[in-house]
Amino acid sequence: MKTKFAASVLSALLYAQGLLGFAALATVLLKERARAEITASADLPTGPTVIVVR
């Protein structure tokens, strides 16, 4: 009976570790995506642009 309990506890811990790993990966990917969007929006001019052609 103790071996079944130990196996179920180990299984639950491995499952929780997998969920935490997935959450960490998603966090890193979303952070990189947000940083890329901020960089892209910083490159765009914010005010009115005047082009003079002579």
Structure description:
Helices cover 78% and strands 0% of the residues. The chain starts with a helix and ends in an 11-residue tail after the last helix. It has 1 helix and no strands.
Q: H/E order of the elements?
A: H
Spatial shape = rod-shaped
Helix share of residues? over 70%
Percent range for β-strand residues: under 5%
Mean pLDDT: 82
Major sheet characteristics = none
Number of helices: 1
Global structural class: mainly alpha
Taking Cα atoms only, what radius of gyration do you get, to the nearest Å?
25 Å
- The low-confidence parts are none
Amino- and carboxy-terminal Cα gap: 89 Å
| Total E-strand runs | 0
Topology (SSEs and partners):
Layout: H1 2-43
Salient structural properties:
mainly alpha, 1 helix, rod-shaped, 54 residues, 0% strand, 78% helix
Summarize the structure.
The chain has 54 residues and is mostly helical. It contains one helix and no strands.
